[in-house]
Each structure stands twice: as C-alpha cells, then as structure tokens.
Amino acid sequence: MIRVSTDDARLRTALDAMVRRTMAMDLTWDWPCGVAYYGVAQAYEATGEDAYLELLQARVDELIDVGLPGWTVNTCAMGHSLLTLQKVTGEQRYGDILEQKMDYLRHRALRFGDGVLQHTVSANNDFPEQAWADTLFMAAFLMLRVGARDEDRALVDDALNQYFWHIEYLQDPATGLFYHGYDNVRGDHMSGFFWARANAWAAYTMSQVGRTIPQPYLYPQFMDVDSSLRDQLAGVRALQTPDGLWRTVLDDEESYEELSASAGIAAAMLAGGNPLHTRAVAAAQEGVLANVSPDGRLLNTSAGTAVMRDREGYRSISRKWTQGWGQGLGLTFLAGLLTAGEATRAAEAETARTAETVSESDASTTASTGASGAGGSADTAE
Length: 382
Description:
The chain is mainly alpha-helical.
C-alpha cells in the first residue's frame, strides 16, 4: 500500500469540475468517450456522488437512443461505463450491449498470431497485424472485467492472453518501457519510440489485473503481467520530471510533459502499491492538480496520436485541446488519490489505536509488576 497525504477538499473540487466539464463535451460512442466515462465512473465510485452517475446514465442513454456505431476494438471502450451502469442500476439493456461487444471481441474482431487482437479503429483493415498498447485498455481490460464478473474462465484466459502477447510484442526488456506499436508483418516496432500514453495504457491496465480477478496467482500468465508491470514502473519512475510528470516521448528531454500519460502512469503506481513509488505518486499529485483548470479541463493533453514516423512527429502533436482520454485518465488518478488518502488516514488511525492499547497494556503490566515486587519485599522483611 502507498500511503498518501491528500487535501480531500482540493481533490473533490477538481473531480467535480472535471466530471462536469467532461459531461458537457459532445463525445460520441468511441474510445475518447469510453476512456472519459470510465473516469467519470471512477469518480462516482470514489465520491459516492449520485449526480455523477445520473449525468453518466443520461448521456449514455442518449447515445444509445440516437443509434450505436459498428464495433471495433476502440468502440468497445464504452463497455467500461456500461459495466458500472448495469451494476448500479440493474438495467439489462446495458448488459445486452455489453454482451454484443463481448461477442464481437470473441468471434469477429480481427486477430493475428496466437489470437492477438489487431488494433482496429474502423471497419477497414487500417493497421494489418498491428498490436498497439491502446488495445489493452479498450478491449483486454474490458474482457477481463466482464470475465471476472461472470466467472467466465475462457474470457479471462483470452484477456490474459492479450496481455501476454502485448507484453511480448511491445515491452523492451532492457528498459522495461513499452513501444507504441508492433507490426507483425514487418516484425518491428515501426518508428520505435517509447510513447508515454502507450506506457500509461499498459501500466494502468496491468495494475488492475490482480485487483480484478480472484486468486490471480492461479493464472500462469498473471505472473508475466506482474513482472512486466514491476519492470515497467521501475523504468518510468527514473524518467519522471522535476514537475512530477512524464514527457510524451519518455526518454526524450526535448519533448513536452504530457498530462494524460502522467495521470495514467501515476494511477498505475498508486494501484500497484509499491511503497518505493510513494514519492513519485506524491510528486505526480501536485503535477497533475497544477494542470487542472478551474473549469475542469486537464491541460497539456496531446491529441490523438498514431504511430508517428519520427521523433518530431510525436513532439509536434498539439496539446491545446481538451481530450476525452485526458479527462478520463485524470479523473481516474484523482479518484484513486481520494480513495488512497482515506485509506491512509484509516490505517494511521488504526496504528494509533493499536499503539495506545499496547501502551495502556504495558502500563498496566508495569503497575502490576511493581505491586508484586513491593509485596515480595514486605514478605521478605517480615
């Protein structure tokens, strides 16, 4: 467990502004909306604010009513908010759409190699036999959550297989860092840069595996996920900037600090619970909060980014606009901080109570021993 010191009033103010700004954006049924609404759901779970759930449900219902798009790996990201809505409201229509997404991922989504999901953004075969780290959030993590909920071992195994092969294809064993993508046809990482948001997708979703499936140690591929995350977070911790953030190309000191990736990586560290990451999380808390505008925008979030041709391509991506993925990852980190802060205070209070009990017990024992000693002396004198 990472013990964090938090200003709950400041966190709640930032969360509230970010939720309301996010729900005011006209996001459609695609991955930006999926990541954003995952963050709103996390804010609801951390705060218990019914208003957040009501806003989320109203917008998801509106999107359903106007008609849903065809399924791709990326559009499946909306399944995360459907899970929350079905759980809280009990309405089956959310579950029905979720089942359609699972059917697509299991039986119709493009795959290559050992059943690896190809990154898809449209009905076209845009990226033949390419694995992108994004897919871990949009599809694999969703499959894992649904499989765990339904006690569907086959679905859990499929999800873990996605993690395993994305680790195999994307993680650099020397640094622990993840490349943005892998081209199985060419057998390379294309331009071969350690893009920060790719590392956030990988780190955050891997940090959730052990928290999602019961007895994760009984799944052999979980050991790969756990070890991969350990090595990755050790690598990214060394690259954190003095502002508590990470650059859009992690190991490029001339690239800008990027907030969606910074929030996602910090959220992974917080969930991972390694006490060696305590200072990094504390620094990220200040760095991220400093980039939340009063009206709830997470600033300095890079626009949608393909696997760029060169370093300059990554450096040149605009960070001017408010983005759904920035809102979602920012909300996820701040919600995690709020929960962790409450847990820290509870643990500290329990430690204090235990210390007080021990102190009282020691005092009682000392008094009892002293009384016995005094009696013994009197007997001897007598």
